[in-house]
Amino acid sequence: MKTLTVALAALVAVALAAGPAFAFGCPKLVAAANEAIAKAEPMAGSGDDRQKARNAGFVQEAKDLVKGAEADHAGGRHGRSEAKAKAAKFLAEQVK
After folding, report:
1. How far apart are CA 87 and CA 33, in angstroms?
2. Alpha-helical runs (H) found in 25-77
3. How many angstroms separate the most distant Cα atoms in the chain?
4. For the segment 8-37, what is each residue's pLDDT rounded down to a tens digit?
5. E strands along 1-96, which residues?
C-alpha cells in the first residue's frame, strides 16, 4: 500500500510539473499566426472582388482565432489555444 501511495504521489507530481511545460507552446504558435496574418494583410487587397472578399474573410477569421487562442491560453486551456493558433496560421496562409 505504501508503494502504491508513493507511486501515485510521484505520478501526480510529474503531471503537475508537466502542465506548465505544455503552456509554452501557445505563445510561439500565436506569434507564428500573427506573423502569417501580417504577411497576408497586404496581399488581401489583390485580385478580383470575389478574391478580395475571400481574403478579407480569411484574415478576419484568423484574427478572431488568435484572440480566442490568447484567451484560452490565459484561461489554462492550452490544447484549445494551440488548435486555434494553428487554424489561424493556416487561414492566413491561404490568402493569395
Report:
1. 8
2. 25-43, 49-74
3. 72
4. 445 555 555 555 555 569 999 999 999 999
5. none
